[in-house]
Amino acid sequence: MKLTISHITEYRYDEPSQFSLQRLRLTPLTGIGQTVHDWKLTVEGARPEVEYDDQFANRVTLVSLDGEQDSTRIVATGEIETQDVNGVIGPHSGFGPLWLFLRDTPRTKAGKLTKEMLRGISGDNELGKMHALMSAIHQTVEYKPGTSDTETTAEQALESKSGVCQDHAHIFIAAARALRIPARYISGYLMMEGKNEQAATHAWAEAHIPGLGWVGFDPANDVCPDERYVRIATGLCYRDAAPVSGMRVGTPGESLTVKVTVASQGQSQSQS
After folding, report:
1. How far apart are CA 110 and CA 56, in angstroms?
2. Which of 4, 111, 191, 215 is the most exposed place for a label (fewest CB within 10 A)?
3. Using one digit for the tens of pLDDT, what is the confidence trace for 173-189?
4. Structural domain total, the chain
């Protein structure tokens, strides 16, 4: 499937910003299940400084804003061809060792509620357990925007029984690591049925399964990623894979607007 993607992020500052330094993880790479045919990242109101691959092999663009600016606009667009690989990404590679993905973070630390959920998880092997875990999270935690934020932990989302895809991914990761199964966070895009325009990117998780390697699980939708999914960045939790992160000086307040459009090539042509 050929997907056409447009991702616009715009910051407007209450007062002119004096300085900012931001990391953009907005460049998908060709790999298992996806081929990048065209991709362009532009930034208005900031200056590109350097591009590099971070410790998780994410392509990062570092941009700076120096001087008074009242807005920053980041636009990522391109065309990617995807294949359904049943969520199987394959053997581990990259700069970090596999055991690193057993390490807790503040967002993915398994607590009482995570461990209680695991008591009801069963399966003939690791793959079966991860499928059962994905479904349990989907049934337990309602997808409800506005009930969590980027700092919400897996335990907090389980307590409120609500959250967004980021929270579903964090719960899955916390539970998998509690079972001593390496797990990682994935940020990316998802083509939704009957809805091209979205208010945010998507997030899911991957677990490392013996004999298969990394396999994707999306508890928010209770499916393994297929040709509708595009991977952008990965890490131990949201913090490592956030589309935009960094620091600002002299900015007392800001408003953020995000618009994401993901459509198959046929849909794009019919709407043009």
Report:
1. 22
2. 111
3. 999 999 999 999 999 99
4. 1
HSE (side-chain half, CA atoms, 13 Å) at 141: 35
Q: CB–CB of 100/185 below 8 Å?
A: no
DSSP label at 84?
-
Q: Which is it for strands 142-143 and 162-163: parallel, antiparallel or unpaired?
A: parallel
Task: List beta partners, residue 98.
Answer: none
Alpha carbon of 175 to those of 9, 89, 90, 130, 167: distances in Å? 32, 20, 21, 9, 12
Residue 271: pLDDT band with limits 50, 70, 90: very low
Whole-prediction pTM: 0.93
19 has which bridge partners?
Answer: 66, 249
Tell me how far apart the terminal alpha carbons of the chain are, to the nearest angstrom: 18
Q: Give, to the nearest 10 degrees, the angle between helix 126-140 and helix 165-178.
A: 140
Separation between Cα atoms, residue 69 and residue 36, nearest integer Å:
33
Q: Which residue has the tokens 């499928």?
A: 131
Where do the H-state alpha helices sit in the chain? 112-118, 126-140, 154-160, 165-178, 238-241, 265-271
Give strand pairing partners of 78.
Answer: 5, 39
Q: Which range marks the domain in which residue 205 is found?
A: 2-271
Q: What is the CATH number of the domain that holds 220?
A: 3.10.620.30
